Amino acid sequence: MTSPFHPTNWSQACASWIHEIQIAFDPPAPVEPGRGGFLRLMRWSTPRVATLVILSFTIHCTRPPGSIPLSQTGSWNGATVSDGQAYVEEGIASWYGGDDDGFAGRPTASGEIFDPEQYTCAHRTLPLGSFVEVENLDNHRRTVLRVNDRGPYIKGRILDLSKRGAQELGILVQGTSRIRLRSVDAMGLPTTLDLAVNQTDPFVVQVASLSDPNNIEILTRELENTFGIVTLQSAVTRSGLSVKRVRVGSYTTRQDAEQAAEQIAKLLKDRGVEPFITRQH
Hints:
Elements: H1 7-25, H2 38-62, E1 75-76, E2 79-80, E3 88-95, E4 120-122, E5 131-136, E6 142-149, E7 157-161, H3 163-169, E8 177-184, H4 195-199, E9 203-210, H5 213-227, E10 230-236, E11 242-251, H6 254-267, E12 276-279
Parallel strand pairs: 3-7, 4-6
Antiparallel strand pairs: 1-2, 2-3, 3-8, 4-7, 5-6, 5-8, 9-11, 9-12, 10-11
C-alpha cells in the first residue's frame, strides 16, 4: 500500500483540490429570461439594469448645462438687445408712489391708474405691458414687474419701481440701488422683446422739462428750426410743479434717436441740457 505521503498521492490530492476550486468559481450556466424561477431571473436582470442606470447617470452628469442667452449684439448705456434674445440692462433704480409724492391715483403712460401696491415699474423705452425680472445687485433679491409707465426722468437712472417693487427688492429706505433687469414673460422666464410693439411706439428725444412759458416757446422754436417736429407733454413733478416736457422727433430706430440726441446735446451744450431717449407713449 502506498504511503499517504508518497509524491504520487500528493499529486492526485492537489489535482482534485484544483478541480474543486475550478468548479466553485465556474460561472453559472446562463438562464434564459422567464425560465428557471424568479430568483434566477432577478440574478440575470439586476446587473443589466444597474449598467443602464450608471450609463444614464454618467451621460446626465457629463452633459454641458443648458444656458439662456443673456448677451446680445448691439448696446447702449449698459443695455443690450437683438432680435430673438432677451433684453438686459444694468444701472440705478429708484422708486415712486410714496405717501407724499402725489403719483398714486394718476394715469400712467399705459392709461391705467397707478397703484403703488402693484408689481409695476416705469422704463423709458421698453414696450408698455412687457415684464422684467429685476435683481438688486446689493442684496441679490429679485422680483418680476410689469412696465406700465415711462420714466425715470432723472439723469443716471434706468428704472422707477412701484412702492411694492421697492419693498420686494429691499430699497425703500435708501431710495435707490444698482440693479440688473432682463425681459421675461409673465411666468418670469427669459423672453424676447416684441419688436412689432416697439414699431407702434416710436422713440423721441426728451430735451428738457420746463415750467416757464417763455422758455418753453424759445426752446421749441430753436429746436423746430433744426430738427423739425417738437412736441410738448404735460407732466407734474414729484414736488407738484406743472411742467412741459419738450420732445423732438419720432424715430423708428434707436440709432436714429441716438444721433439726434447727440446733435441736440452739441447744439445746447452751453445750457446744461442733457437730452435722453424715451418713447412717444
